[in-house]
Write a structure and sequence with these properties.
The chain contains 16 helices and 17 strands. A hairpin with a 2-residue loop joins strand 2 and strand 3. The radius of gyration is 21 Å and the shape is globular.
């Protein structure tokens, strides 16, 4: 059976101008794009009504289960926020609380057109089950920390969890689930552990997720500890030899940026979390000039407080104009790939993130007729400056519709609300 998205508008880059087209989805992929789409009985035909069809959004860095801590630990700098609020709260996590909180996060992301996320957390087996049940995609990593300089990683329980996660779930559901390795950060790991994990990832073809130079304090204390920046620290230990996504990168130097470019590191830009925690502004323009793949992440909702990649894109679109005092430093057309194609590439999903024949059908319908979107002389500008997540009319992952016109197809919303209400209400009892 085919799904036909009829009478939709595509962005100018696809070459159809203002003409309405039909996009045919079959076997999880975009099978055809045509101005006439004949169908047979049994095909599902969705009337796009002239709405805009775009690639779905990818969240390149988050901690999904932190929906548990939305609004908990506000108005603190990162280190106090972590040490006084988040780390103590995370000590109470259970499989069930992470499972429920992750499904809640996924519901929020689907509603806003996000079909895939990169997650770094604990109880990732619970996250994996939530992902498989709800139809989304994810790159999951069990966050690794180490403090003993003589640690034996061959007997480390956290790494054992990470490798079991890989054995149990990597490639599940035709690649919807990918399992990465993760070093939480330089300041939470010793060199011996980083070298071992980096070598393991490279030797086994695994991707890597890390936090990198999120704050000035982190950056400068690494220099005092090791005589080098966090980027150089990971570079020298071979961590960046694996296909790596580095989150934040706010305080990187020009030399750091050159190393990231040399190693083909993807950078997850988290503008709202970085602003809210007072961490600073990532040097986007410098990274793009040297060809770094920059994607967008939300971080966890405890530091955001939403899982809204469209809002991240819109914040990034204006943030760097003001920071550099140059309105041309970012253009509307340049922003969308950061929220779509670049995020897919950061996850190793090379056949995702475009509305083209042969690509995975990860698609979103945007209401061009909302009052705040009219008139739309430029659809890129509409997406970068005026659209809202509630303009999402349909979210599709691998050809499966997960959300349409206010209703979820893979989530029982009322049951999930009840389940999460119980978890949230009693978490801090």
């Amino acid at each position: 059976m085919k799904t036909i998205l009829k009478d939709v508008t595509l962005l100018p880059e696809y070459g159809y101008g203002d003409r309405k087209v039909s996009v045919v989805v079959e076997n999880k992929k975009i099978a055809a794009i045509t101005e006439t789409a004949p169908h047979v009985d049994g095909d599902e035909v969705i009337d796009g009504k002239g709405n805009l069809l775009i690639p779905a959004f990818y969240n390149a860095h988050c901690h999904a289960a932190m929906t548990l801590f939305r609004g908990y630990g506000e108005d603190l700098p990162l280190q106090r926020w972590l040490e006084e609020r988040i780390f103590p709260a995370e000590d109470r996590l259970t499989y069930q609380s992470v499972y429920s909180a992750t499904k809640w996060a996924i519901a929020e992301m689907i509603r806003g057109g996000v079909v895939s996320f990169s997650d770094m957390y604990m109880f990732e087996d619970a996250v994996a089950e939530a992902v498989l049940e709800t139809g989304v995609k994810a790159n999951l990593s069990r966050s690794l920390v180490s403090f003993d300089p003589d640690i034996d990683m061959t007997t480390d329980s956290r790494l054992a969890e990470a490798l079991k996660l890989y054995a149990d779930y990597n490639g599940a559901e035709d690649g919807r689930l990918k399992i990465d390795l993760s070093l939480h950060a330089e300041y939470t790991n010793v060199p011996r552990a980083c070298a071992y994990v980096g070598a393991y990832a490279s030797d086994h073809g695994m991707r890597m997720q890390i936090h990198l130079s999120e704050t000035e304090k982190e950056h400068m204390e690494c220099i005092r500890r090791h005589g080098k920046t966090p980027t150089r620290f990971f570079y020298d230990l071979g961590v960046l030899d694996a296909s790596t996504t580095a989150a934040h990168c706010v305080w990187v130097s020009d030399e750091d940026i050159a190393m990231l470019a040399e190693k083909g590191v993807s950078v997850a830009h988290n503008p709202i979390s970085n602003l809210k925690l007072g961490s600073g502004v990532m040097p986007l323009e410098k990274m793009r000039k040297v060809g770094i793949n920059v994607a967008l992440g939300t971080d966890g909702v405890a530091s955001n407080n939403r899982l809204d990649v469209l809002r991240e894109m819109q914040t990034a679109a204006i943030l760097h104009k003001g920071f550099l005092r140059n309105p041309a430093s970012t253009t509307a057309r340049e922003m969308l790939p950061m929220a779509t194609r670049n995020g897919a590439l950061s996850q190793g999903r090379t056949d995702c993130g475009r509305v083209e024949v042969g690509y995975r059908a990860d698609l979103v319908l945007i209401d061009r007729n909302a009052i705040h979107n009219i008139p739309s002389y430029d659809d890129y500008a509409m997406l970068a400056y005026s659209a809202e997540r509630f303009d999402v009319r349909m979210t599709m992952a691998d050809g499966r519709i997960l959300y349409r016109n206010g209703e979820y197809t893979s989530i029982d919303e009322e049951r999930l609300r009840y389940e999460c209400r119980e978890v949230f209400a009693h978490y801090f009892d």
